[in-house]
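Class prep. Sample record?

___
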Amino acid sequence: MNPSLVFNSNSELLEGPVFDKKNNYLYFVSILDCLVYCYNPVNKEILSVKLDSPVSCVFFVERKVILVSSKDGFFEIDFNTLERKFVFQIDISNDVRYNDGIQDDLGRVIIGTMGYPEIKKNIGNVFSYYKGEYKTIIKNTTISNGLAFSHDDKFLFFIDTPTKKVAKYAYNLETGEADFISNVIEFKTSSSPDGMCMDKNGMLWIAEWGGACISKWNPLTGQKIDDIKLPCTNVTSCCFDNDGNLYITTAKNDLEEEVNAGGLFYVKLN
């Protein structure tokens, strides 16, 4: 399970990897560089489109066409033509930006916010956008991060990073409402949970900011099962490809020896 470096463009904060399993493309973002990437794992081609404000999260539209969140709103990017167009904006305050997000099985865009350029306690929210309307489903967050649905769509797992916990919500797919149940995982080390994804067996794989690893957890018991070490202290997020292997994004820190911090890594699990 040795991680291999796929891509490094000296990004300060690489984030948000999502794998389009239908069309076999990986998307990820360099938040502060305002760059959105499309990676073809077959021919290793990497395409990029630059927006005008920090970007954070990608949602699938069709083959090589995605919706991406930026501080200026949500844009559709066509990687067939490298063109972009504005689609919508949610009414967020000037002192926040979007961070992590996910789509539910009906196509709702679910996305959290955090303070920007300064992080401020409880200034964020998690929004749900669907068919031209939006609502707040989780309030008063600080750094809204990892989101993952259970396979039956009945539960939503969510990380507000400073809490060092993974919260479990009852999720109503018909209405899009989320109701807090309990915290199911708690980090008791110096690292903090960042992005996460769920595997086919319902286990959560969590990127550890400050922990130099991806850790695997059982959300039913709250127990840590395993971890995968990375050559970078700040690990930001992860996702699975069609073969059940992991793509992992990282961020820079103050350690000069971490030459590949801010790079994209791949770990073969199968």
User: Anything to note?
Assistant: The mean pLDDT is 97. The CA atoms of residues 196 and 217 lie 10 Å apart.
